[in-house]
Amino acid sequence: MGFDYKRFPYYSGKLGFSLDNGKTSFFIWAPSAKEVTIRLYDEGLWSDAIEERKLEKHSDGHFETTFEKNLDGIYYDYLIVTGGEEYITADPYAIAAGANGERSMVLDLRRTDPEGWEEDKAPERPVENIIYEVHVKDFTFQEFSGISPEKRGKYLGLAERGTRLTTDKNFKTGLDYLCDLGITHVQLMPIYDYGSVDELGDDMDFNWGYDPVNYNVPEGSYSSDPMHGEVRIRELKEMIMALHKSGLRVIMDVVYNHTYHLDSYLFRTEPWYFYRQNADGSPSNGSGCGNDIASERPMVHRYIVESVLYWAREYHIDGFRFDLMGLLDTNLIGDIRVKLDNIYGEGEKLIYGEPWGAGLTPFAEGAYPADKGALKYISANIGAFCDATRDMIKGSTFEFHAKGFVSGGNVEPHLWRNSVSGWSIEDWRFATKAPSQTILYVSSHDDWTLWDKLVGALSENESFLKKDPDLLRANKLAAALYFTMMGNLFMLSGEEAGRTKLGVKNSYNSPLFINKFDWQRTKEFKVLVDYYKGLMRMRKKMPCLLDKSEKAKDRILSSTIISNKTVTITLDNKEHERYKTIKLIYTGEAGYFSLPVDGKWYILMDGENPDMTDNPMEVENVVYSHGREVIMLGR
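^ that's the sequence the OP posted. Answer follows.
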């Protein structure tokens, strides 16, 4: 018989701690526990307990106790006796912690608010969502960045303004660079407390951070002082406020599908309740990380929903990217969408994720995975990464040398049909309600960078550092392809500068010299950076590309496969003040293409000029393509 989670009582009351009228109360849900003892410390690590006390158990499964004093600044953990086993655990409901998250912390959060925090809010909602994935450490670590040495690799490094390349004082870096790029959202790779980096270790230690330890506590290695729990919170808020003031919204990458180890604080609090198990009792491993969170169970559902709402409320987070969303259930994701909409307004907070898992996981009866198959049944404001578009453009993400359209591959009709709508492949097109559910991308932290994948497909000597003209043209074509499709746009930081990881596919724990954002290379690849900037400017002017409604597909007036290297698509752009019709020519070969003769056409973009909308080139009834480019025409 499987784990009977339904026998566990549901508790709807307070969890964690509360500070009220000079008193401090603690609450923890551990229905199987025989006894729970809280231990108080005056430091976040190493010191002995200054006080211990047993908590009182209640029939709804929670334990609680109240101290007749204000314990703001005090650290604590729990000693829990369950099933004859003794567990020492931090509080899984903690909002602050000491170094490496080993002890939780009582904290008056208002002490962590930087000046002006109460007035902080997201910039005005943009006309388009252009999401830029950033790792706090790798983006701010390189010395060429000009970021203050003590802030490199830290929250405050991403908050610093006025930084310039050390070898060129006119070249903007860091936050100033982001402001000029044209993006609208910064997606932060995990910033909660994760376990794969020692917060007191070497600054050169690196990991992506997909190893959750404390879900509601910021990561301490990005702070200037991991020992004092209030510092990481204040500095993260300073960073978010700086991004908001700079006109950028902030998305948080969240990993609720698994924990760093099965022996987590959730497990130590209530063994197995928070985890799925196989029929033989072993932990399921759909995450590929040794365990799966059982999101469909009532107290797990509550935990995740409240965690998301906490980050939105306390840290002013503007959206959430769910890692391996296909391992979470549709009821959970739908409930998060509804609650965020009710508090902040419909669609104000972005929600999207990976509509797959790394493997299979045993959902409880009546629970359904939030994967590709679920998209047409859930809110149109829940998005998912489109792997079909990604692989059509650059080739299979599983094969280094596989060619996509930009690297010489042929047009495959079943991949191209209605591709501009962001659906691009039949199963995806019928799975989604509207382009609002589509996240268009060609690179992320996972797998090879776009540049490295192009090297694998096009370069015989596999030179990752060389600024090869053929690779540059292929990269421009890849960007132009997904920037002229309907949906939300997503890119890995540095994609616009030919970012390379020297061919390393899975760099989650590779050293910083592999993972770092290379600011010197960004200057060297300025021609590519400028092309991306132009694409972003063009994109924001085109109603036919910005439409994310269920009727967006009606804008496709025609779609024709001309040859095995060329496709043309005509779009209704009637809201534009000048160009009411748009024609896109996606071509991997040089040649002349005939245009309808019932009016003048103007070239609005090509392989070298991403935004000619203010200075278009008039053409008659024929246009020439140099190959490997997208040509946009308007009339």
